[in-house]
Automatic annotation (TrEMBL):
Taxonomy, superkingdom: Eukaryota
Protein name in the entry: Putative F-box domain, leucine-rich repeat domain, L domain-containing protein
Species of origin: Medicago truncatula (Barrel medic)
PANTHER family (alphabetical): CYCLIN-LIKE F-BOX (PTHR32212), F-BOX_RNI_FBD-LIKE DOMAIN PROTEIN (PTHR32212:SF269)
SUPFAM superfamilies registered for this protein in UniProt: F-box domain, L domain-like
InterPro entries hit by this protein: F-box-like_dom_sf (IPR036047), F-box_AtFBL13-like (IPR053781), F-box_dom (IPR001810)
Domain F-box: 73-108
Coiled coil residues, start to end: none
Length: 433
């Protein structure tokens, strides 16, 4: 069976016949799986009503007292509720009622998770049949594609192509090779949110082709989240992968690496507001010096509207460069270090101190105890130099109670803003590790 969309012309070599695939699709959909709580309450209500009808002879009741709460719900509301389920659960739930039987065909949000299926063949048959039977006139708002295998690359290319030819706005996928991305992925005028996750690059095993593509054209993209990806140099010899995203406001970089002997990651964006960076920790995997990529690199900021900077690290603190406009525009900073000085590199105290010197207009600073310990290891003359920063500081937060000798570091941070509010709260940081 082929898809009705004319753009989907990829041929699929599935072992089962179209009739057999449809039987597998329907039988797999009817297999019992616990129903999501949102629909469990509605189903329980309907079951109670059916039981009440069976007992009418024994307990006659006025029909006016029986309320069918499901039938009065509009289709748009039911579709909205179904969108919170993964796609397999949504199909199974629709089978429970004749009225719901076709609602899954118009779901605007699809969550396709391989872990919901017993084996990859059933999963791939479900993908093919679901997209074949879906109402192709319905726009696709969001697609989450979660796979732990990519044996049938043409099938996943078809899924990605389907999403981008149906004006997807939010796209999330985990992948191990750039071969998954068909030409349709490289350009979209509707995509606003993109999340790409690769395999952990420090785990033992084969190296995957997880290089972030250079030729992406997403003029409406506002949110970009990247994890376990590789950044390479462009034609200018620089690692500047985000300069073409003119509408980008939120950027998350989680444990990514550089290749091509690059030393710095340049982040240039005219409208970037929120930046989150989590770097690899030396203790979280193999020795990085035996790998063919660089996990130790500096960060160049050329984002004049950057307002919030959230950093998570451990053994290594990157050097921070950039334009004065970008560095001075940052108002809210979160420094989340996990290791103390004894696990850290010797230059970390001076690097962290330079961060605070360059980020002159911080209004809110959230910092962990290990970060304070790193600063406390700095030489006495380093902490006694003229410190022009943190004059606008209004809030200083810690993740736990601080005891001497770290109190002297707190006094140092507050010397130019003694009236700033100090908050000791264990929930002031949200942990990424």
């Amino acid at each position: 069976m082929c898809l009705s969309s004319p753009s989907l012309s990829l041929s699929l070599s599935l072992s089962l016949s179209p009739q057999r695939r449809k039987v597998v699709f329907l039988s797999e959909s009817r297999r019992f799986v616990p129903i999501h709580p949102l629909f469990a309450r509605l189903t329980a209500c309907k079951t109670t009503m059916m039981g009440t009808r069976r007992q009418r002879k024994r307990q006659p009741k006025d029909d006016s007292q029986i309320q069918d709460r499901i039938s009065v719900l509009a289709d748009c509301l039911l579709i909205h509720i179904l969108s919170f389920l993964n796609t397999r659960e949504a199909v199974q739930t629709c089978i429970l009622s004749k009225r719901w039987i076709n609602l899954w065909k118009t779901l605007p949000t699809l969550t396709l998770d391989c872990y919901q299926f017993s084996d990859c063949e059933i999963y791939e048959n479900f993908l093919f049949m679901f997209l074949s039977l879906r109402d192709h006139s319905t726009a696709l708002s969001a697609l989450l594609l979660h796979n732990n295998h990519f044996e049938n690359i043409s099938l996943y290319q078809m899924v990605i192509e389907y999403a981008f030819t149906h004006n997807v706005q939010h796209f999330k996928i985990n992948y191990t090779t750039a071969e998954l991305f068909s030409p349709f992925f490289l350009s979209s005028h509707t995509l606003t949110s993109l999340t790409l996750t690769g395999e952990d690059l420090l785990l033992p095993g084969p190296r995957f082709d997880q290089i972030f593509p250079h030729s992406l054209s997403f003029p409406t993209l506002t949110t970009l989240s990247l994890k376990h990806l590789v950044f390479g140099c462009n034609d200018d010899g620089c690692v500047d992968p985000f300069s073409t995203f003119n509408m980008l406001t939120t950027l998350i970089i989680d444990k990514c690496v550089l290749v091509d002997n690059a030393q710095n990651l340049r982040i240039s964006s005219t409208k970037l507001v929120n930046l989150t960076i989590c770097v690899y920790d030396f203790l979280s995997g193999c020795n990085p010096r035996t790998a063919d990529f660089e996990i130790y690199f500096g960060i160049e900021l050329y984002a004049p509207t950057l307002h919030s900077f959230d950093f998570t690290g451990g053994h290594y603190i990157p050097k921070l460069f950039g334009s004065k406009t970008a560095l001075s525009s940052i108002k809210h900073v979160n420094i989340n270090l996990k290791q103390t000085m004894e696990d850290s590199l010797w230059e970390n105290p001076s690097i962290l101190f330079k961060w605070l010197v360059n980020l002159v207009n911080i209004e809110s600073l959230t910092i962990t105890k290990p970060a304070l310990q790193v600063l406390s290891y700095a030489h006495d003359d380093l902490l006694k130099v003229d410190f022009p920063s943190l004059c606008n500081l209004k809030s200083l937060k810690f993740n736990q109670i601080i005891r001497p000798p770290l109190v002297t570091v707190i006094d140092f941070l507050l010397q130019n803003s003694p009236s700033a509010k100090v908050d000791f709260s264990s929930s002031s940081l949200w942990t990424r590790w």
